[in-house]
Every structure is written in C-alpha cells, then in structure tokens.
Amino acid sequence: MANVVVVGSQWGDEGKGKIVDWLSEQADVVVRFQGGHNAGHTLVIGDNVYKLSLLPSGIVRGKLSVIGNGVVLDPRAFVAEVKKLKEQGVSVTPEALRIAENTPLILSLHQDLDRLRESATDGTKIGTTGRGIGPAYEDKVGRRAIRLMDLADLSALRPKIARLLNHHNALRRGTGQSEIDPEALYQELADIAPQVLPFMDDVGALLDKERKAGSRILFEGAQGALLDIDHGTYPYVTSSNTVAGQAAVGSGLGPGALDYVLGITKAYTTRVGEGPFPTELTDETGRLIGERGREFGTVTGRARRCGWFDAALVRQTIRTSGITGIALTKLDILDGFETIKVCVRYELDGREIDYLPASQAAQARVKPIYEEIEGWRETTAKARSWADLPAQAIKYVRRIEELIGAPVAVLSTSPDRDDTILVQNPFQV
Predict the structure, then answer these.
(1) Is 302 annotated to bind ligand?
(2) How far apart are CA 135 and CA 140, in angstroms?
(3) Binding site annotation covers 381?
(4) CA 125/CA 157 separation, integer angstroms
(5) 37 belongs to the catalytic site
(6) φ and ψ at 205, to 5 degrees?
(7) How far apart are CA 11 and CA 245, in angstroms?
(8) Contact 246, 229 (CB under 8 A)
(9) Residues 6+ apart with CB under 8 A from 120
(10) For 13-36, how does the pLDDT look when each residue is reduced to its tens digit (9 = 90+)?
(11) Which one is catalytic: 37, 110, 140, 266?
C-alpha cells in the first residue's frame, strides 16, 4: 500500500477537492502540510457542500486528520471553521484532529501587515488574500514566531511577545500605524489557547507510528506548484513550498514516506491574482471557459483568469514535484469547441524555449507557441469509462500525456465524485 501526495500542478484551483475527497475515503490518515486558511477546497458529498480552508478534507469523512508543522495556523479561523462544520453536522474532536505542536500561529498583526502591503502604491501588489499567511511565514523564518506549543506555557509567553513586537512595532511606526500593546496580544492568545490546545500533538511521531502500522496516509497540498516560493512564478507566489517534497518537511517525516505523487491538472489553465500567465485568454473564449467552469475562488470569490492548457508549465511541475501521474479535471468544460489550443513551448526574444524562465522580466515577454487540436461536439460530462468519451476527447487526453511526459491516472468529468474514470489507483501502486 502506498502513501499518496496530492499537489496542484498549475496555479491552484485545479479541482483538488473532489479528488482529495475520493482518495480520503480510502485513506486512514489525511495530512495538510503547508499553507494556511488562504486555500479553499469544496467537497460535495451527497446533498452536502463543505467549503474548507484550513482543515484537512478527511475530517468530513471521519478519518484521522492532521495539520502539520508546515502550515501556519490562525487559531481564530480554526475555531470558526470548526464551528461552521459543527453546524453542518460534522463534529471536530481532538480524537479526530491533531495539530503539530510546532505549528506557527497567524496573529491579527500579520493580517494588518498583509493588507497594508497589498494597499501600497509602490508596485509591490502580489494579489494575496490578505489573511496574514506571508507575514506569519516571515516570522517563522525570522525565528520570532509564536507557535502553538507556546500557548501551553503562558508564563513564558510574554518575553516571546516582546521579541515579536520589537520587529512588528518598528514596522508599524514606520508606516504610521499604532503600536500593538503587548498585554492586549497576550490576552488574545490566552483567551484562545483553551480552544486549540486540546488538539496539539507531536504529529511527526504520530504519523511515523501510523505509517509503521500500515495505515494509508494521504498528504493534501494547498494552492498549486506554480505558486511555490522557490519554483513558482516569483514574486507572484504564495509564501510556502507547495511542491510535493514539502509533504515530508511539513509533516515531520522523511522523504521515504512518500510513495506516489498525484498532480491535479485542469484540462485548461486558470490563475487567481497577479502574475504572468502566457496562455491567458482575455477574449470571448476566455470568458466562456470561466462561465462554464464556474471559475470563482472558494475563499475569496474572485473571478479566475482563464486560458488554454500550458503543457510547458505542467512539464516543469512534473519535474519539481516528481509527479507520478496526473488527475485530469474539468475535461467537460471544453465540450463543443471546434478547435482547442495547447501551448507546447514559448518564444522568447526570437528564439524557442521549452520552459518558463525564472526571470520576472523574461516571464512577461514569453509568447506561447500553440498546437491546435480538433475539438469534439459530443458531451464528456458525467462519463465514467473511456467508452463514454468521444474519440476526439480521448485523442486530446492522449496528446496531453505525450506533451507533459506523465500518464493520466484519473480523469474527472464533472464535480460529482462518481463521474470519474480510474486508470490507476494511487494507493495501489
């Protein structure tokens, strides 16, 4: 039995919710290993729709769920999401959910700083959700973060708050903001502590025990690999590593615990926020894809930018995440197009290249080189076997496999979890 890592192979929003839910039903343990409550997963189970931002998807399936140390945790958002799930009939108990003791916390001051930077007029707008994720990771790397375990020893918390505020109050003074009162921050943390501390655990040891006992572990990524802080379209990226290797680092296990990497890949391309997007369509076709695909963010409600499938980008993600196979989603959105374009490489300053360069300036200058593929008139929606698909749709899928250098393990043809064509079960490699 394999342990599986699920990552988005584009800029996120690839339809991970459905695939992760399908896999979590087979898993024993589900782990979130990076990001914060800026990521959204929509799960449709029967007549119930669950919108999760922080909690692992397995929580609605009654599976042991884990928030790893690679996540930054907003304790107020956590409490609010637990309450919302309870209202939908899902009880989140310490027996069902564990949070790494060394998980850094997102505080209100992080959100203040995030929003302040996004409202600046100096050209640094990144397009963040304003939820404090970036500043919280900065404090983690700066070795001044307040971590979950710190709430268990309130007597030692004040000196840590003072160290944190030495940094943040200087920033606030420099931007004309009022300083944070250390006692107010202490009280904020002391008040929330009893609501989150019962979930605290040494999750690295917990997961190692589960692995040795033969449990199936599903590592659930947020965002997409092209938003990775190292390997994404910097600086228009998130603040954590989103590639598959982070599943080990962000959960307290070694890389040997990762057996299969499933890359969730949309049959076209979307992006939220700022940054380069070589295949973006700003015409009627792009609008039509967005409407058909209901391309609006789960967390923010922002309309997503839409474009043709970019094989050059996905090839890079397959390399940086070591993707074993892909789950191709939303094929049905392309039904009815006379021709469909796929970007196979780029033109940069008069020469052809087969990768997206790391330079921000070069990324802005690349032009997509397209291959045109004949479309299909028949519907692919709700197909559950290859026999249900139009021949030309199968050709499109096969051509994508050739261009990206990875097989399609799962094909999704609607948001309904049963409308799935399984080629290879990642848990059974």
Answers:
(1) yes
(2) 9
(3) no
(4) 34
(5) no
(6) -65, -40
(7) 17
(8) no
(9) none
(10) 898 888 988 899 999 999 999 999
(11) 140
Answer yes or no: 41 catalytic: yes
Q: Among residues 52, 55, 25, which one has the least CA distance to residue 425?
A: 25
DSSP code at position 147: B
What does the pLDDT look like over 92-150, one tens digit per residue?
999 999 999 999 999 999 999 988 887 765 555 666 777 899 999 999 999 999 999 99
Report CA torsion sign: 393, 261, 356, 276: positive
Give the domain extent around 52.
Answer: 4-101+199-260
Tell me the average pLDDT across 227-242: 95
Quickly state the pLDDT bin for 251 (edges 50, 70, 90). Answer: very high
Confidence category of residue 211, pLDDT binned at 50, 70, 90 = very high
Residues 179 and 316 in one domain: no
Side-chain half-sphere exposure of 197, counting CA atoms within 13 A? 12
Q: Is-contact 330 294, C-beta < 8 A?
A: no
Does the annotation flag 320 for ligand binding?
no
Residue 356 to residues 11, 283, 311, Cα–Cα distance (Å): 14, 23, 11
Q: In 3D, which of 283, 273, 330 has the Cα closest to residue 130?
A: 273
Per the annotation, does 238 bind a ligand?
Answer: yes
Q: Are 146 and 192 in contact (CB under 8 A)?
A: no
Say which residue the tokens 């990206």 belong to.
404
All residues at 6 or more sequence positions from 179 whose CB lies less than 8 Å from its CB, including other chains: 165, 169, 172, 173
> Structure pTM?
0.93
State phi, psi for 61 to the nearest 5 degrees.
-100, 0
Token readout for 423 is 């080629």
End residue of a domain, out of 170, 196, 222: 196
Does residue 385 have a known ligand-binding role?
A: no
How many domains does the chain divide into?
3
Cα gap 59→91, rounded to integer Å: 9
Active-site entry in 37, 41, 168, 341: 41
Query: Which letter does DSSP use for residue 243 in this model?
Result: S
Boundary of a domain, candidates 153, 175, 196? 196
Q: Is 298 annotated as a binding residue?
A: yes
Let me know whether 16 and 76 are in one domain: yes
- Model confidence at 418: pLDDT above 90: no
Pair 253, 396 in one domain: no
How far is residue 81's CA from residue 78's CA, in Å, rounded to a whole number? 5
Which CATH number goes with the domain that contains 153? 1.10.300.10
Q: Is 191 exposed, middle or buried (0-12, 13-18, 19+ CB in 10 A)?
A: exposed
Q: What is the mean pLDDT of the chain?
A: 93
What pLDDT digit, counting tens, does each position of 333-363 carry? 999 999 999 999 999 999 999 999 999 999 9
